[in-house]
Design brief:
Number of helices: 10
Enzyme class: transferase
Distance between the termini: 26 Å
Order of helices and strands: EHEHEHEHEHEHEHEEHEEEHH
Structural class: alpha/beta
Main location: cytoplasm
Number of strands: 12
Protein name: Homoserine O-acetyltransferase
CATH class of one domain: Alpha Beta
CATH topology of one domain: Rossmann fold
Pfam families: HTS (PF04204)
Radius of gyration: 19 Å
Strand content: 25-35%
Oligomer: single chain
Subcellular location: Cytoplasm
CATH architecture of one domain: 3-Layer(aba) Sandwich
Length: about 325
Amino acid sequence: MPVTVVKNLPAIEKLAQENIFVMDTIRAESQDIRPLNILVVNLMPTKEITETQLLRALSNTPLQLDVTFLHTASRTAKHVAESHLESFYRTFEEIKTKYFDGMIITGAPVELMDFEEVDYWQELSDIMNWSNSHVYSNLYICWGAQAAMYYHFGIHKKLLTSKLFGVFENEMYEDHPMLMRGMNEIFYMPHSRHTTVDMDEIQEHDELQVLAGSMETGAAIVRSLDNRHVFIFGHAEYDWNTLKLEYERDKALGLDIELPKNYYPDDDSTKRPIVRWKSTATILYTNWLNYYVYQETPFIANQIEKMKRIYVQR
């Protein structure tokens, strides 16, 4: 089944070229199916690239998804046309009376700042507070995961001694939890960050469970026991060349950037990077949508706020 988005979103054409089925809202309205309503809070400056990456990751489910993109009103986007935001995005004020089965909060290039110093922190806090009663399950990526870990559970991020940059091996710590059904016990995922969340602090919290990680990356995937919060501290959604473009950009700017680890064959940046994480993205997003959203969310969306949080060991 397809992902449904606003008609004429540029990502539709790009994904169609990859034989990925994305359906516009006009066609979707002719089908008598209750879609899952998914809200994507896109904090990335390169919004169109992130749109394509996330829609690709979401597209492998047999479920029909109605995806709404949201941008922050308290910060003016500099790397996307205003016409694009006006056509394909909504603000929190426009959607805050609605209910969503799932919400994704992306990463953002603000990790070296304290959370409260980020100019849209209050707005993002309002969105996360609102999600407690208006969203069934939330998935957070990289800085978005760190921000949500801090806001919902009071665990702060910490600065790394050097940037975690590359494709890293992660180990599954639990015995195939539903979120990771079908995944290998050892899997790969890109990371690109200067900060981390202390694994010991997460493990000491009685509402959280670390599902996967490693000595090098720390916690990679975490869930709350009620499955209402999923934290992915890497970027399973990344394209094959995302780290390449970041490396070349920083190098051109004269920044102190090391070659991404485990990415280029023979660490030769002239060779095409090896993709080791595509199945990780497919499984994570498909399982989240199926087990943590579709199987649990109420059919009548406005009943989300009435549902009790029942902790389940799965």
